[in-house]
Amino acid sequence: MSDYDHILNWKLLRGSHAFPGPDGGTCINEAAILAAGFRYRPVRSANSMPPCFSRPICQLAMHLNDMATDTQRQRLIPFVTRLACADTPAAELERTRYIDAQIGCPLFPDYFSFDKGLKALEGALAIGRRADPLEEEEVASRLDAVRGPDNSTKKRPGILPAKVKGWLGLSQALESAE
User: Fold this and answer.
1) For the whole model, what pTM was predicted?
2) What whole-number distance in Å separates Cα of residue 75 and Cα of residue 69?
3) What is the pLDDT of residue 95?
4) How far, in Å, CA of 44 to CA of 46, rounded?
């Protein structure tokens, strides 16, 4: 379990950041870029995300990240590995319409609650293509790369903690493979 402390203790912060520190220090979209295996980059809008990321979902995630309190923001961590789920233009439009219908405002004014936005994010993620579940070794190698070379020789446990498996969608993938 201690080998995964860095992701369990990753801290999401408001706004874009110049560099992700070893203990977190990124917004949700910057963390999602790293989790998907891309090189780190500051994110100032959903349009600057790699093409495999859903624009409406990333836009909502960014808004939730930036409007949340520090405590609320950490509730977004389970979504970090789920944002790379871009779909067809029709599915992306359906996601946009769903989000607008759920929160009642297309431009995301701050007058809806964080919990309402979180529910809209969960529902939008259920529309269309889901982010591909990541294999344990792939997740571990990506996280090691973010942490730096000093931790690359640590032995990894054979089983991910259930909490991390749930975040990464591995528990469902493992169950369906059996």
Assistant:
1) 0.70
2) 10
3) 95
4) 7
Angstrom distance (rounded) from CA 12 to CA 4: 16
Structure tokens at 27: 């917004």
**Residue written as token pair 């690359």:** 152
**Residue 166 identity (one-letter amino acid):** G
The least confident of 20-24, 46-50, 74-78, 126-130 is 20-24
Q: Crossing angle of helices 89-103/114-125, nearest 10°? A: 160
Q: Tokens representing 111?
A: 């007058």
Question: Tokens for 63?
Answer: 């808004």
Alpha helices in the chain (DSSP H): 5-8, 28-35, 55-67, 70-73, 89-103, 114-125, 136-147, 162-168, 170-177
Q: Which two tokens stand for residue 5?
A: 């402390």
Q: How far apart are CA 4 and CA 61, in angstroms?
A: 24
What whole-number distance in Å separates Cα of residue 163 and Cα of residue 48? 30
